[in-house]
Protein backbone atom coordinates (compact mmCIF):
# COMPACT_ATOMS: atom_id res chain seq x y z
CA UNK A 1 0.00 0.00 0.00
CA UNK A 2 3.00 2.29 0.24
CA UNK A 3 4.65 3.25 -2.99
CA UNK A 4 7.96 1.60 -3.56
CA UNK A 5 9.96 4.85 -3.75
CA UNK A 6 8.58 5.95 -0.41
CA UNK A 7 9.22 2.58 1.06
CA UNK A 8 12.83 2.56 -0.16
CA UNK A 9 13.31 6.14 1.04
CA UNK A 10 11.86 5.24 4.42
CA UNK A 11 13.96 2.09 4.47
CA UNK A 12 17.11 4.08 3.56
CA UNK A 13 16.27 6.63 6.22
CA UNK A 14 15.73 3.90 8.78
CA UNK A 15 19.00 2.21 7.75
CA UNK A 16 20.82 5.51 8.06
CA UNK A 17 19.18 6.08 11.45
CA UNK A 18 20.06 2.48 12.45
CA UNK A 19 23.67 3.03 11.32
CA UNK A 20 23.79 6.31 13.27
CA UNK A 21 22.31 4.58 16.31
CA UNK A 22 24.76 1.66 15.90
CA UNK A 23 27.63 4.13 15.65
CA UNK A 24 26.32 5.98 18.69
CA UNK A 25 25.87 2.65 20.53
CA UNK A 26 29.50 1.74 19.71
CA UNK A 27 30.66 5.13 20.93
CA UNK A 28 28.59 4.75 24.11
CA UNK A 29 30.01 1.24 24.59
CA UNK A 30 33.57 2.61 24.31
CA UNK A 31 32.70 5.41 26.75
CA UNK A 32 31.12 2.83 29.06
CA UNK A 33 34.31 0.73 28.94
CA UNK A 34 36.45 3.79 29.64
CA UNK A 35 34.14 4.74 32.50
CA UNK A 36 34.29 1.21 33.88
CA UNK A 37 38.10 1.26 33.64
CA UNK A 38 38.15 4.65 35.36
CA UNK A 39 35.80 3.40 38.09
CA UNK A 40 37.97 0.30 38.54
CA UNK A 41 41.11 2.46 38.72
CA UNK A 42 39.46 4.81 41.25
CA UNK A 43 38.28 1.83 43.32
CA UNK A 44 41.79 0.35 43.27
CA UNK A 45 43.23 3.70 44.26
CA UNK A 46 40.64 4.08 47.05
CA UNK A 47 41.47 0.61 48.32
CA UNK A 48 45.17 1.43 48.24
CA UNK A 49 44.54 4.71 50.07
CA UNK A 50 42.43 2.87 52.64
CA UNK A 51 45.20 0.35 53.29
CA UNK A 52 47.74 3.20 53.49
CA UNK A 53 45.48 5.00 55.97
CA UNK A 54 45.15 1.86 58.10
CA UNK A 55 48.92 1.37 58.04
CA UNK A 56 49.43 5.01 59.04
CA UNK A 57 46.88 4.63 61.86
CA UNK A 58 48.67 1.51 63.08
CA UNK A 59 52.03 3.33 62.99
CA UNK A 60 50.44 6.25 64.85
CA UNK A 61 49.02 3.91 67.51
CA UNK A 62 52.40 2.19 67.89
CA UNK A 63 54.17 5.54 68.14
CA UNK A 64 51.66 6.79 70.70
CA UNK A 65 52.17 3.62 72.73
CA UNK A 66 55.95 4.09 72.57
CA UNK A 67 55.53 7.72 73.61
CA UNK A 68 53.37 6.73 76.58
CA UNK A 69 55.92 4.09 77.59
CA UNK A 70 58.75 6.61 77.25
CA UNK A 71 56.82 9.13 79.35
CA UNK A 72 56.20 6.47 82.02
CA UNK A 73 59.88 5.54 81.97
CA UNK A 74 60.88 9.21 82.24
CA UNK A 75 58.50 9.69 85.18
CA UNK A 76 59.88 6.57 86.87
CA UNK A 77 63.45 7.76 86.29
CA UNK A 78 62.60 11.18 87.75
CA UNK A 79 61.18 9.45 90.82
CA UNK A 80 64.28 7.27 91.10
CA UNK A 81 66.46 10.33 90.67
CA UNK A 82 64.56 11.97 93.53
CA UNK A 83 65.11 8.85 95.68
CA UNK A 84 68.78 8.85 94.76
CA UNK A 85 69.11 12.51 95.69
CA UNK A 86 67.33 11.83 99.00
CA UNK A 87 69.64 8.90 99.64
CA UNK A 88 72.68 11.00 98.78
CA UNK A 89 71.51 13.70 101.18
CA UNK A 90 71.02 11.06 103.90
CA UNK A 91 74.49 9.69 103.20
CA UNK A 92 75.99 13.18 103.50
CA UNK A 93 74.09 13.78 106.76
CA UNK A 94 75.25 10.40 108.13
CA UNK A 95 78.83 11.11 107.07
CA UNK A 96 78.69 14.47 108.82
CA UNK A 97 77.26 12.87 111.99
CA UNK A 98 79.86 10.11 111.92
CA UNK A 99 82.62 12.67 111.52
CA UNK A 100 81.25 14.76 114.37
CA UNK A 101 80.92 11.71 116.63
CA UNK A 102 84.41 10.51 115.71
CA UNK A 103 85.83 13.93 116.54
CA UNK A 104 83.97 13.99 119.84
CA UNK A 105 85.17 10.48 120.76
CA UNK A 106 88.73 11.43 119.85
CA UNK A 107 88.48 14.65 121.83
CA UNK A 108 87.08 12.81 124.87
CA UNK A 109 89.80 10.15 124.67
CA UNK A 110 92.42 12.88 124.47
CA UNK A 111 90.78 14.66 127.39
CA UNK A 112 90.66 11.41 129.35
CA UNK A 113 94.33 10.72 128.68
CA UNK A 114 95.35 14.28 129.43
CA UNK A 115 93.41 14.67 132.71
CA UNK A 116 95.63 12.63 135.04
CA UNK A 117 98.75 14.34 133.72
CA UNK A 118 97.43 17.88 133.91
CA UNK A 119 96.02 17.61 137.43
CA UNK A 120 99.00 15.96 138.87
CA UNK A 121 96.73 13.85 141.05
CA UNK A 122 94.90 10.66 140.37
CA UNK A 123 91.37 11.06 139.06
CA UNK A 124 88.51 10.02 141.17
CA UNK A 125 87.05 6.69 140.12
CA UNK A 126 83.61 8.34 139.66
CA UNK A 127 84.98 10.87 137.13
CA UNK A 128 86.91 8.20 135.29
CA UNK A 129 83.93 5.87 135.25
CA UNK A 130 81.64 8.66 134.02
CA UNK A 131 84.07 9.61 131.25
CA UNK A 132 84.56 5.98 130.28
CA UNK A 133 80.77 5.46 130.22
CA UNK A 134 80.43 8.55 128.06
CA UNK A 135 83.16 7.28 125.70
CA UNK A 136 81.49 3.84 125.51
CA UNK A 137 78.10 5.44 124.82
CA UNK A 138 79.61 7.61 122.08
CA UNK A 139 81.43 4.62 120.59
CA UNK A 140 78.17 2.63 120.57
CA UNK A 141 76.36 5.55 118.98
CA UNK A 142 79.16 5.82 116.43
CA UNK A 143 78.90 2.08 115.64
CA UNK A 144 75.11 2.34 115.28
CA UNK A 145 75.41 5.40 113.06
CA UNK A 146 78.04 3.66 110.92
CA UNK A 147 75.71 0.64 110.55
CA UNK A 148 72.80 2.87 109.47
CA UNK A 149 75.17 4.70 107.15
CA UNK A 150 76.17 1.39 105.60
CA UNK A 151 72.50 0.50 105.03
CA UNK A 152 71.83 3.89 103.40
CA UNK A 153 74.87 3.48 101.15
CA UNK A 154 73.64 0.02 100.14
CA UNK A 155 70.19 1.44 99.37
CA UNK A 156 71.79 4.31 97.43
CA UNK A 157 73.84 1.86 95.36
CA UNK A 158 70.79 -0.31 94.60
CA UNK A 159 68.86 2.79 93.45
CA UNK A 160 71.75 3.77 91.21
CA UNK A 161 72.01 0.28 89.74
CA UNK A 162 68.26 0.17 89.15
CA UNK A 163 68.35 3.59 87.49
CA UNK A 164 71.24 2.52 85.26
CA UNK A 165 69.40 -0.61 84.20
From TrEMBL:
<keyword id="KW-0175">Coiled coil</keyword>
<feature type="coiled-coil region">
    <location>
        <begin position="46"/>
        <end position="87"/>
    </location>
</feature>
<dbReference type="GO" id="GO:0003779">
    <property type="term" value="F:actin binding"/>
</dbReference>
<dbReference type="InterPro" id="IPR042420">
    <property type="entry name" value="RAI14/UACA"/>
</dbReference>
<protein>
    <submittedName>
        <fullName>ANR24 protein</fullName>
    </submittedName>
</protein>
<keyword id="KW-0677">Repeat</keyword>
Amino acid sequence: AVPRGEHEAAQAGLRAEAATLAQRLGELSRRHEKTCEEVFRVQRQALFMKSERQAAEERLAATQKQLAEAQDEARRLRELHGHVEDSARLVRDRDRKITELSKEVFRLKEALNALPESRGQPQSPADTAALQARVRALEEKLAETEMRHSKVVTLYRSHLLYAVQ
